[in-house]
Amino acid sequence: MKAxxxxxxxxxxxxxxxxxxxxxxxxxxxxxVNDVRQGKVIELDVADGTTEESIxxxxxxxxxxxVIESYTIELA
Length: 76
Hints:
- Its main location: cytoplasm.
- The structure is a single chain.
- The chain is α+β, with helices and mostly antiparallel strands.
- It has helices at 16-27, 52-63, and strands at residues 2-9, 40-45, 69-75.
- The termini are close together.
């Protein structure tokens, strides 16, 4: 079974990578980009029967820093 975890910085947390990307896009002539938030996608290939609760525990303990990041889980 496949699981995808999308991790993003919480609103209000400064995102220096996103700011650098926004600046670079402007320097390359791409106008109209007001803000960029950069995150990460983690794809897991887990055994059948692995529960969403188990994946949530993985996120809470390792995959996301829940103090400054939020996450969503997609199961396929």
